[in-house]
Design a protein that fits this description.
98 residues; mainly alpha
């Protein structure tokens, strides 16, 4: 699986807490670390490391985001509610939008 350029760009701007939440949702969607690792085409050791560190290694997050957007509908809701609304509030406060 390869994340397209738009997903890579979006993943750069997501806060760490949101990234972690998306990873956890995807992990719950799959039966376990091995199944998620197979879906992502990575070693399950990475999944366990991310769980322990509570942080996903940056080069891998676009792939996680792409899979979560395909498999877990709540991912779109999280991005809409927590990211887009925050950006809209920020742009309004800065006078960028009315």
């Amino acid at each position: 699986m390869q994340a397209n350029e738009k997903i890579r760009e979006l993943s750069r701007f997501l806060p760490e807490g949101i990234k972690q939440k998306i990873f956890e949702i995807l992990l719950k969607h799959y039966a376990g670390e091995k199944e998620l690792a197979m879906a992502l085409g990575i070693d399950s050791f990475l999944i366990k490391t991310w769980q322990r560190q509570k942080s996903v290694t940056e080069p891998y997050f676009p792939e996680i985001l792409a899979l979560a957007l395909q498999e877990c509908p709540e991912t779109k809701q999280i991005i809409q509610e927590q990211v887009l609304s925050g950006l809209t509030d920020l742009c309004t406060a800065l006078g960028i939008v009315g």
